[in-house]
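Justification of computing resources. Each target in the renewal requires a structure prediction run like the one illustrated here; the chain below, 125 residues long, is used simply to show the kind of job we budget for.
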Amino acid sequence: MAAIKIRSPKDFKCRNFRAHWLDQITFRKLVMPMALELDAWLKSGPLAPDLEEAPEGWRKEFKNLTGGWTFRVCGEGECPKTVYTIYVKGDCRKGAVDLDEWEARGRKPAGSDPMAELFDKEEEI
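Resulting structure tokens:
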């Protein structure tokens, strides 16, 4: 299981989802402030779990000042696949890994034992 860099929808490997992203923007379901926040996030080089660790994909929620979400990006592996906004209701697949929680766990699978890592290392003498 490895952390992989999320690619932009413009990337050649993610070209299958590009038309969907353009539709979202064209029909103003992803408004400019959302698009700018998404662009900044993608340029920051975010990581996601690979398909082995997250077969149902991943999700990233972008929250507003009150703590609710304004839009949510869903993806699989290195490619973002779709976006849901407060204007277009929807949800990622059930079982999708929340990237914020995954990052807080130190990019470990849910339920992994943090103490096991300590016992796996050999002591240097």
